[in-house]
Amino acid sequence: MDIRNTIRHYVLENFLFTDDESKLKDDDSFLARGIIDSVGALEIAAFLEESFGIKVHDDELLPENLDSVSNLVAYVGRKQPQPA
Amino acid sequence: MLPALRHRGPDGSGVYLDPRAAVGLGHTRLSIVDLAGGAQPMTNEDRTVWVSFNGEIFNYIELRETLIKAGHRFRTHSDTEVIVHAYEEYGDDFVQQLNGQFAIALWDVIKRRLLLIRDRVGILPLFYTVQNGRLLFASEIKAILPLLPVAPRLSAPALDQTFTFWAPRSPNTLFQGIFEVPPGRMAVLEGGRLRESTYWDWQFPADGDYLNGSPEVLAGQLYELLADATRIRLRADVPVGAYLSGGLDSSALVALIRRHSDAHLKTFSIGFEEQSLDESGFQQQMVDHLGLDHSRVLCRTSDIAEDFPGTILHTETPILRTAPTPMQRLSGLVRAAGYKVVLTGEGSDEVLGGYDLFKEAKIRQFWARSPQSEWRPVLLKKLYPYLDTSGSQGKAYLRNFYGIGLHDPAYPGFSHLTRWFTTAQCKVFFSQEIVSALREDATNGLVGTLPPAFGSWHPFNRAQYIESKTLMGSYLLCSQGDRMLMANSVEGRFPFLDHRVIEFANRLHPELKMRALNEKYLLKRAMQGHLPAGILQRHKQPYRAPDIPAFFAARTPDYVEDMLSEHTIKQYGYFDHNKVRFLLNKARRGSSMAYKDNMALVGILSTQLWHHHFIESFSHAASAGSAASIN
Do B480 and B345 reside in the same domain of the chain? Predict the structure, then answer.
């Protein structure tokens, strides 16, 4: 599964408790929708580390990186080693 | 009805019937004062006033003297008897003379009126329903159920309130048509009509109009009030023990007991497997300091799962945390030690300003005066350590979560918005059927019932009022208090909830309760010199028990799989089975850290168990001629 779908399924199932794709748009702000609080952000960080083999640093726990599917996809893309 | 209340009164039972008025009073007794003479229901000199009551009147000795001087003749030495004579002497206002905890049913034979009265803060329960022109009342709903013609239904608004405030808002219960007499209120049935009135409520001064006096003087007054509240709560013809968690409140109580009595003092506490929840080091400090005979019961995580269904049988309502369950083990320890009565420290946080929620509300108020401030919200990191470890991440999430309602700090529920918002996340699991049955926003419903003077109170006092009326009165004293004590026929007594202590504390300047972010400042001052420094200085550790791990870390009990199965969720109809399935998967994976996931799981499971115990298993009492016909 690609990065985007992996992330989408994770957020849908663990924070919206559904597999209905229509319930989440890629650009939806998690904070604005009240889906994820600061503890939820830590859960997402753990998920990213386990699923994509990256290390999430404390100062990267920011809405710019974590607050929507699009932001998460971009963040993971920046963190993963690029092909030579 | 009486057999259902056997656990509340295993030492005896009694019945009074007035056939002409079709009235009956029943009672199951837990013998504590005047063991030989105190049987109930009890009557006055000429048998024209009858009472059945649950609780204690702690100032009964003084009241008895006053009433005897006024010409009343007593037959017993029990505290119960002051009730009937006080009613004769003072009429309905008699309740103002009582210092105690009580649920009272009083029948005036001549005037043909029934009084149902609950104590000022809700220590003891009192439920009622009206069915086909008949009023049924009881200490627990399980005594009423067999007399209903059909199975009761769940009240959707009450479920909505539970998933906001942690319990249905008084007078509601989770059962449609069954209500409680709210704390501080009296219901009078007369001439076929039921009328309610308030005889006592939490009151605070208008902002600025506080008690005068230096902290030293006021601390001394607080100490004397607490000492007297403790003294009169030691009155019993059986031994009295105490709960000792090792926190400031229970430690203060134990020190105050010791001031009045050198007698052997037995104390009790719970221990947990999980180290972060265990407080035994502090308990040992107090044991060594005062020479106590201390017992602990270890509550294993697996014990919680095992005991949980029984907990709901006693709470008669869903709960959002497993915290009550170990309290039942604790009262079991008390019983096994041969004790029927314990003093315990509930109420101190509400009355004297102990909760982290009050600190949070204070910081939020401060922040609201300068909402753009970068550093004001950072104060919250001092309060919640897990935020402090998250580096700069804190700010955006802090702002978003803890900044709820910051634009309107005058909103009456401001102090509690973050808790209500978090809890309300659990409503995402409601079924469509439940959602469609909801007409009113739970929060606005509460705000509409606040007293007229509320807006004139200091924000700290407003927070105290809401906390005392919602979490304490409807959850802490009931599900975590009385029900868990009475499950093992143990009576709890609450010196911090003596109404003289409350009335004094309510008139204190808020800074004496929370000095900057130093909680229970005046209590600590009052107890200086009476407690070890380590106890006075320790950071408050809220009482918590493991939630999701209790059910999913090791083997998941069969009842959990059954109650949360797609089949049962669909069958009961309260929750969305698809969403519950995802929550279950998350719980099984062990990746749920958020409070709201824990609350949702425990809340859903306990609601399912509630339905299984009380609705699915409902059966109407077979015979009208049995004890069940008493109302």
Answer: yes
Alpha-carbon distance B543 to B538, whole Å? 14
Question: Does A46 contact B591 at a Cβ distance shorter than 8 Å?
Answer: yes
B396 contacts A17? CB cut-off 8 A: no
B-chain residues near A38 (CB < 8 A): 386-387, 390, 393-394, 397-398, 401
The answer to whether B520 touches B248, Cβ cutoff 8 Å, is yes
Which chain A residues are within 8 Å of B390, Cβ to Cβ? 38, 41-42, 58, 61
CA distance B614 to chain A (A): 29
For B400, which residue in chain A has the nearest alpha carbon? A31
Whether residue B560 is found in the same domain as residue B520: no
Domain membership flag for residue A59: yes
Q: Determine, yes or no, domain membership for A42.
A: yes
Q: Which domain holds residue B581?
A: 548-616
Q: Both B101 and B237 in a single domain?
A: no
Overall domain count for chain A: 1
For testing contact with chain A, the best of B378, B384, B398, B400 (most A CBs within 10 A): B400
Handedness of CA B364, B366, B370, B376 (dihedral sign): negative
pLDDT at B202: 97
Model pLDDT, residue B624: 35
Residue A28 C-alpha, separation from nearest chain B C-alpha, in angstroms: 15
- With tokens 């080091």, the residue in question is B281
Cross-chain residue pair A14–B578, CB shorter than 8 Å: no
Could you tell me if B518 and B588 lie in one domain? no
Residues B193 and B225 in one domain: no
Query: Under a CB-based contact definition with an 8 Å cutoff, are residues B240 and B342 in contact?
Result: yes
Q: Are B545 and B484 in contact, with CB atoms under 8 Å apart? A: no
CA-nearest residue to B582 within chain A is A17
Query: What's residue A82's pLDDT?
Result: 66
User: Do B504 and B571 lie in a common domain?
Assistant: no
Segments of chain B with pLDDT less than 70: 275, 277, 384-398, 592-593, 621-631
Domain shared by B45 and B105, yes or no: yes
Does B29 fall in a domain? yes
Within 8 A of A16 by CB-CB distance, chain B residues are 428
First-to-last alpha carbon distance for chain B, in angstroms, is: 8
> What's the complex ipTM?
0.87
| Sign of the dihedral through C-alpha B485, B490, B491, B493 | negative
Q: Do B397 and A37 touch (CB under 8 A)?
A: yes
3-state secondary structure B50-79: EEEEEEEECCHHHHHHHHHHCCCCCCCCCC
Contact between B593 and A43 using a beta-carbon 8 Å cutoff: yes
Q: Do B425 and A19 touch (CB under 8 A)?
A: no
Report DSSP letters for B61-126, one per residue.
HHHHHHHHHTT---S---SHHHHHHHHHHHGGGGGGG--EEEEEEEEETTTTEEEEEE-SS-SS--
Per-position pLDDT tens, chain A of length 84: 799 999 999 999 999 999 999 999 999 998 878 787 767 888 888 899 999 999 988 778 888 898 899 999 999 999 987 665
pLDDT of residue B415: 87
What is the CATH classification number for the domain harbouring A24? Answer: 1.10.1200.10
